[in-house]
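Lecture notes, unit on protein representations.

Consider one protein chain, 355 amino acids long.
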Amino acid sequence: MVRLDRLTEEEFARWLELSAQRQADDRAWVNGSDPAVERAQVNAMVPVLLPNGLDSPGHAFRVARDASGEELGFVWVGALPDAPEGTCILFDLFVHEPHRGRGIGRAILEQTFDLLRADEVDTVVLYVRADNAPARALYARLGFVAVDAPEGAKDLQMRKALEPDPMAARTVTLERQHVTLGSLTGEGWVLDIGGGGEGVIGLVGGARVVAIDRLKEELVEAPAGPLKIVMDARDLQFPDATFGTATAFYSLLYMRDEDLPRVLAEVHRVLTPGGRFLVWDSILPPRVDEGKDVAVVPVTVALPNGKAISTGYGVRCPEEGRDAAYYPRLAEAAGFETLCVDVAEQQIAIVLRKS
């Protein structure tokens, strides 16, 4: 999994230095000029392009990370002062050497296109060295077309028209939710329901965690650390009273109303007496427009080690919605006692106990 995060001021300074040098080197190669002269010209252009630095209007800077938070690369897109409305420049795309050849660049660009569509950008322009065959091939696969260039040109302009996102008209995006996680207390194994993808609970609990998911690819994508098992939460293949703690981090919202009672009954069965079930999830509003049938829940997670994960969850909008009482009501029917329900905007954190 590749995610794009906003840069801190420190990250911005570091990446801008690298990007400016890369662009100066490319200009020197194309023009046959002195790299120091080209770097001075790039330095002079930066205040014009970026009068407010990281917060300059019309520009977006993102750092790419994997699910564990490891830095993969960087992307910078923005508009030139005299560019036609709806047109932006891909100023820089960079992937760290150890991560090249794994589709990271493509994943970065595809997510960048989504950001640009949201800002009503319809055309992306880039310049690439004529001798950079791998980059030219990547851009061509993503739909960029080379603009006619003179014979022997050392750089090429390529353009891509962004098609409107067909999902945009169907999507309701909730306010970003912020979750701060502490260390997992208690002893023994922790069962994480739906622990694939970002694998947030596995990052917190490490080898104590048994992460299950119906989809093998979700578990493969999750960071190393927990024990990963392909399993359906409606039919847990564990003996009674195996776990002291169970968790569900934004995974219950993917489950159908008719499946949740069985899932909760299974979690109750495999917990020890007095065991806790910790649930982080979102309130989902009722569907008021049949055309808006997808809900996107952006979430930022602060981990105990100081790192943060910025992610999002997209699900079908339930017709009746799910309020703060929805999961406790079903859990109590399955035999749980509700110890705590914390609500912050549309985010909910629930602590349940097996009586």
